[in-house]
Design goal:
Blueprint lengths: L5 E5 L10 E4 L6 E5 L4 H6 L2 E5 H20 L2 H14 L1 H7 L6 H13 L7 H15 L5 H5 L4 H10 L1 H4 L3
Antiparallel strand pairs: 1-3, 1-4, 2-3
Helix pairs in contact: 2-5, 3-4, 4-6, 5-8, 6-8
Length: 169
């Protein structure tokens, strides 16, 4: 980190070079150059993507959290998420927990989605998919017939509910 400097990264086609300290962008491992504030405008005109040090740090922290979110999601957090969904969709949660799947099963599915970097922001859709397919998913011979027609995000929900996948945790 170089406070007061900017990180310049090649953003496609660049038409010239800028002077600075060569480095590696920490979040994605891309080659980059720390440049002075005086060179910021020139670097942008040459085609570099230029970000300030605070944004570099924030992006790095965000990527670290996203990369380990599945490790941080515990049962209490899952219960908190279910409580939020219950406010708007009480029947959905009542139907699903514990009749179809228990809290630990939901946690494993959500951890699997997070591990694959699939967003779980739309918990209603995730839970509806689990409720709709949980009984089918437990039958290995039926997997290919039902998940082929799902959206990619919902496909991941179904993948992580498979006993063959979840038992490896």
């Amino acid at each position: 980190m170089k406070p007061g400097h900017y990180l310049a990264m090649e953003g496609g086609t660049i038409t010239g070079q800028v002077e600075g300290t060569e480095t590696t962008e920490p979040a994605f491992g891309l080659p980059a150059i720390w440049i002075s504030a005086n060179d910021k405008e020139r670097a942008e005109m040459l085609g570099y993507t230029v970000v300030d040090a605070a944004t570099v740090l924030a992006t790095h922290i965000t990527e670290l959290v996203n990369g380990h979110a599945h490790e941080m999601l515990n049962r209490q957090e899952v219960q908190n998420l279910l409580d939020l969904v219950t406010k708007d969709q009480p029947k959905l949660v009542d139907e699903l927990v514990p009749n179809v799947v228990n809290l630990g099963g939901i946690q494993k599915v959500l951890q699997g989605l997070l591990r694959e970097r699939v967003s779980i922001r739309d918990m209603t859709t995730v839970l509806e998919t689990m409720a709709d397919y949980a009984k089918v998913i437990k039958q290995p011979s039926s997997w290919l017939s039902w998940y082929a027609n799902l959206s990619p995000a919902l496909w991941w929900v179904n993948i992580w509910m498979r006993p063959e996948v979840s038992r490896h945790w």
